[in-house]
């Protein structure tokens, strides 16, 4: 069962980290293009340093929490996190809210920095660095949370961390090569998939924390993934059908 | 202070975006936890509540969502 759990948790961590890294890269690139590499990289490395400190501080604490409490807490957080992503991906797929657009986010950040530059803002490099720092820290925190949540108490920290690191490295290298936001990443499909996987893990873990003896043990995660996926796709179909009916009626 | 509040709000936003969805998920987990505590022998019931509750919450939330 180790490989099944490590495989599904590693896949979820890789896909989630890919999305988060793309979002962070968009802001860091905008800062680099408007104000140069120095504030962008300083902010990004400061963000990574704070992340490393958080991991170093929280890591040993997690070992002291009883496993059932840890499973319930992480299960709830994964459900909140995963179902939030899944809900958003469903609404985006159905056209109820706009798709996340990296080109747009990049242009917005670029315009904000150029506006500050136009006003001769004295602390511009500092503000640009802070923008880069915040992007790396916030998106990085999501990656750290996902890695910890998917691996805590299961002995799969190494493969899950490696999967998340590989995704971040892949995005960073792509950013260095193309110098533009990665707009071709199918972000909504990735968010849909990650939302499904994190929700399934959250459900499984919350149940384990309450002492539920899931049929098939770890295999139940695959069944939950299938159920969340089917429900999500059915919701998109339902919302699309409703929108078509409303258009026809009007 | 303003920056700190904004940062904390962004941090909370990682988990909670739609208050109704978050509250409903927590309610499902609390009910499942109560059932597990009151009837430890019926663990399957707690699991069933979690599974049906989470899927139900998702369907109801997106079905009632308005265009944003």
Provide an overview of this structure.
The complex is a heterodimer of chains A (250) and B (68). Chain A starts with a helix and ends with a helix. Chain A has one domain. In chain A, helix 1 packs antiparallel against helix 5. Chain A is 84% helix and 0% strand. With 250 residues, chain A is an all-alpha fold. Chain B has one domain (18-68). The interface between A and B is large, with 41 and 35 residues.
List the keywords.
heterodimer, A: 250 residues, mainly alpha, B: 68 residues, 3 helices, flat
Characterize this entry briefly.
The complex is a heterodimer of chains A (250) and B (68). With 250 residues, chain A is an all-alpha fold.
Reported for the largest beta sheet of chain A, the result is: none
Count the beta strands of chain A.
0
Largest β sheet strand count, sense and barrel closure of chain B = none
Low-confidence stretches of chain A: none
Termini separation of chain B comes to 30 Å
Number of domains of chain B: 1
What would the principal axes of the Cα set say about the shape of chain A?
flat
User: What is the helix/strand order of chain B?
Assistant: HHH
- What does the average pLDDT of chain A come to? 84
